[in-house]
Amino acid sequence: MKKLSFLILLLISSLTSAQEILTLEECYDLAEGNYPLASQLSLLEEKTARELEVIHKDYLPNIGLNAKVTYQSDVIEIPMDFGGQNIEAVDKDQYRATVDVEQLIFNGGKITARKDLKEVELLSQQQEVKVNLYQIKKRINQYYFGILQFREKMALLDSKKEALSERIQELESRVKYGTAIPASENVLYAERLNIEQQQDEVESRHQSALQSLSAYIAIPIDTSTILELPEQERYLEADGTRPETLLYNLKQEELDQHQSLLSKSLYPNIYGFAQGGYGKPGYNMLDNSFDDFYMVGVKLNWNVFDWGKVKEQKKSLEISKNLIDIERENFNFNNRVELEEAQMKINKIQNMLEKDKEIIALRERIVETTQSQLTHGVITPSEYLTEFNKLYEAKIDQQLHKIDLQMAKADYKVIKGNTEK
């Protein structure tokens, strides 16, 4: 419902404005909902519903229609004379048609156990899909924050180009009035062309990232789409649960249900049955004529000795539980290591940002000095350009580090299992 509302909102906004706003959380939801693997969730549910319906039908009576015609080489004869009356021998050709009905009365809860197992299997299979879908979040982080970085770099390159153009105009004026050496502005011309090349490269990568993100979220986005930079100050304190944790719990529950079903397999099965038919002879084998007949009763099926098969199967399931415990411990270990590495990366970027402030402040003072020196002809354009480029490299690094920090926090939350605001 959340995804549908968001799509409707996008549709309305596209009619009223050329700009659309996307958040990281919305991209997560859209990517998970539109990724091809997501369709497995509903298919698994439909498949299980049909399997449960088949299991439920075991409660219904079994009805069978049987018919046979036989001719046998010999029949029962009674070679005795009862006061001059002979008992007629049964004909060698015999005919029989019956309707047999069998109704389950008791089976120790096997049907219920099978249904419970199917339902847990469904949850486990769906959770496996969700685990795979969860991995998409890291890719979304990569494209989402990559787009933000390309846009920041483009903005700074524009600013750099504008500032350089001002220096070019000043130098051209000085050359015109003879206070600067002719052709000295060529160095700045070449650098402006270099900036334009960088802009073309960044724009190409920007468009590629837009196309990749658009493919994952299944809606068109372009340069007019606004991507909000998430501020994730609570990334460390927020609780989280990885989908893998629930998957391991469901696998354990699945094995528990298998054990329950095995235990119930030792219980007897009790059926009520009825048979009705028509044939020659009927149940009276001495009556050599067509007759109808019927029988009703109760029967018991009980495998009282299974040679220890159920016991061995339960031991096998216990081993499977131990294997799942090991998988869980291995995942938790790797997850802790990933979190530690992610936290170290966050700390490193935060330290870099502190240094960025100092570096930019120093570079700005240096550029002010060199700009004055260039104006008065003390230094060459090449010398000015060296310091000018260092300043903008520092500014670009700072902006990229700011986005890197938020991306690192977003990755931390994904690793921890908390991708909510």
From TrEMBL:
Signal peptide: 1-18
Keyword Membrane: yes
This protein's UniProt keywords: Cell outer membrane, Membrane, Signal, Transmembrane, Transmembrane beta strand
InterPro entries in the cross-refs: TolC-like (IPR051906)
Entry's localization field: Cell outer membrane
GO cellular component: cell outer membrane; efflux pump complex
Gene Ontology MF terms in the entry: efflux transmembrane transporter activity; porin activity
PANTHER family found in the cross-reference section: OUTER MEMBRANE PROTEIN TOLC
Protein name, as recorded: TolC family protein
